[in-house]
Amino acid sequence: MDRDSTPLALALAAAAHGYAVFPLGRTKRPALPSPHRSAVPPITGALPPAPGALSPASGAVPPTPGPLPAPAAPCRGACGLPGHGVYDASTEPAVIRALFARAPRSSGYGIACGLAPYHLIGLDLDTKHGADPLRALALLGARHGFVLPATVRVATPSGGAHLWLSAPAGLTVRNSASRLAPGIDVRGTGGYLVGPGSRTTRGVYRFLPGAPPGPPRPAPAPAALLRLLAPPRRPVPYAVHGHPADPDRTAEALLRFVRASLPGERDSRLYWAACRAGEHGLASGVLAARLVAAAHATGLPPHEAARTVASAFTRTAPRLAPGGTRPPTPERGP
């Protein structure tokens, strides 16, 4: 079959600017299958090892006729084989070419976050669930005293945007979904951004104007924003904090947060509150019903509120609760 050389060319160009990259498919997922989950065709050519990686003296990755046994702990590339997603990312042209040669259906590339030289942080401004991430970001800046600098911005096919920022070396920023504010996901260490020019099932990612002139380099993140991003559970822009010793207080705070919703933010605040409930281990049928009732009191139809809460609980609660049962979700309306 004909191979599209554009994703490889774009990935190599990004690597030339210092970004570690790897191939993505049209669903934005890594294009190479895991060697621990699916059969891996025999390797006919040597895959240059990543700097510092263990490899045979010849520098070639040994052929693998089938899937490897599942490791006791998640493998992040220690086995020496490709197929570990963001942990395959490299700035070495030879490694990148070899990765894309093994992923003929790739239509884009991912950029690993948290790595030198930029220690990239991505702010994913997502408009789904009725969120207004730009307004939320402005409120966050006003509350904590920072203004985002001009930096690299990438338009996403869904109508949102990715903002690129850099962090100091040694600072770990964790991935999160709507924790910073409704509609703002964070991509940090162990996460990745879809590279500009990548084609997905939803459309193409493109650079937006407004970045400083010259090569695409992220601007330093403001110190006040870094203080919110660095710890795994920092205060969020609204006064809703977890009380591990008193789950009832946490639940009441989340319900107050939902009841304070204004038109245009009802669904996004409900989704945010339900996500926090799931993360605190409070996902239950009783709290789901109370959240739906609180949202309904602000004008959100009950069936829409129930769907939003169910979506949030599914995303944040464990897949299987103790005893092999699934976490409870609210009943859906018509």
From TrEMBL:
Name of the protein in its database record:
Bifunctional DNA primase/polymerase
Instruction: Show the coiled coil region(s).
Output: none
Span list, region Disordered: 44-64
Question: One Pfam annotation, family name?
Answer: Prim-Pol
Q: Where is the composition biased (Low complexity)?
A: 44-61
Residues annotated as domain DNA primase/polymerase bifunctional N-terminal: 11-225
